[in-house]
Amino acid sequence: MHPESTDLPPGPWLLVTLGEQRYGLPVPWLREALPGQPADPVPGAPPAVLGIIHVRGEVMPVVDLRVPLAMAADAAAGPGKLVIVEVDQERFALQVDAVADVVKVNAEAVEPRAIGPHPEALCGFARLPQGLVQLVDPRALIPQVAPAMAEH
After folding, report:
1. Residue 28: phi, psi to the nearest 5?
2. Which residues contact 152 (CB under 8 A, 6 or more apart)?
3. Digits of tens for pLDDT over the chain (152 positions)?
4. Rg for the chain (alpha carbons), in Å?
5. What single DSSP character describes residue 12?
6. From CA 2, how far away is CA 87, in angstroms rounded?
């Protein structure tokens, strides 16, 4: 079941990019953005989990946001950025290509879902001056993150 956009936290959204696409992440659930770094592999981790990193003594999984969004891998993408997410007592890093901007998205500007099949991680989209932005609900990523953290 998809959470509706109305139960997302109020406040601004962080625009990130993957390839040519723009995605929004709810700022109240974000802690920081860091330069991309290699992750230590985790044997048996779900496909979305690139591995684990250590941030100020805390171990957290790194999720390649392309996998839950059903995007093809981009070998030319480079190290990108890591966005630290904290939601529902889980903390993990999302790997994205770039962090673009923080924008205000009015609730009335959010369309609940894209038309047609779409990944579970998307909770809707908004038309902004920057163009179409697909909105990501980080809570949908927790089932992919939890198995990697059970080992640590």
Report:
1. -60, -20
2. 52, 59
3. 334 445 777 789 999 999 889 999 999 999 999 999 999 998 988 888 999 999 999 999 999 999 888 888 776 667 799 999 999 889 999 999 999 999 998 877 788 765 555 678 888 888 888 888 999 999 998 887 766 555 54
4. 15
5. -
6. 16
* CA–CA separation, 43 and 32 (whole Å): 27
Q: How far is Cα 104 from Cα 148, in angstroms, rounded to an integer?
A: 33
Kindly report the pTM of this predicted structure: 0.86
Nearest C-alpha neighbor of 141 from the set 53, 48, 24, 60: 48
User: Reduced to 3 states, what is the DSSP secondary structure of residue 130?
Assistant: coil
Neighbours of 103 (CB within 10 A): 17
From CA 79, how far away is CA 54, in angstroms rounded? 16
Query: Measuring CA to CA, how many Å separate 22 from each of 40, 48, 69, 117, 136?
Result: 27, 19, 12, 18, 10
Residue 131 host element (H or E): strand 131-136
d(CA 82, CA 98): 9
Q: How far apart are CA 100 and CA 24, in angstroms?
A: 10
Backbone φ and ψ for 6, nearest 5 degrees, come out as -70, -20
